[in-house]
Model the fold of this input.
Amino acid sequence: MDKKKKNSMDFGEFVDVFGNVIERCPLIAAKKKTQRPFSDLEDLKKHFFAFIDALPQKSQEGILRCHPDLAGSELRRGTLTAESQREQSAAGLTSLGADERLRLAELNAQYRARFGFPFVLAARFSDRAAVSRELARRLLCPSAQELRTALGEVKKIGSLRLADLLRADPAKL
Ligand SMILES: NC(=O)N[C@H]1NC(=O)NC1=O
Done:
């Protein structure tokens, strides 16, 4: 996608392309559209992430709640977004045995009960063993620290998704 094309996309097109950079939060892409033009990938990233950082805590928690559990019911039902499906698959979460799935479900439930939002981790930087390990470790972290960690993971996921989108078009920036 060349720069001219990216910056000249109409509103609907822009939200179609960038609407799931932050999982199930197309509103963020819609808001960013009003701040175009962007100079490059780093500039786009900066705008998306500054928006998240400026939100009040309740809204930041709302962003986290838009994320499906890792190896959760949405994966089983086949209702994940295409991006999430690819990421969870890359971490081997689509081929867990029953025991591993149960253990993750229990840890996910404990995490959600403790923090009020789901456990979020950039699955593409991980694998099935590391996901459980990290979940068990973060379950013990203080709430304020955990919110920061989880938002950092949202940004890692968004960075990878943005990079994919811009890489998909050889004539990009
Ligand atoms: N819960 C959670 O982390 N989900 C996200 N992680 C990821 O890499 N893709 C997702 O959908």
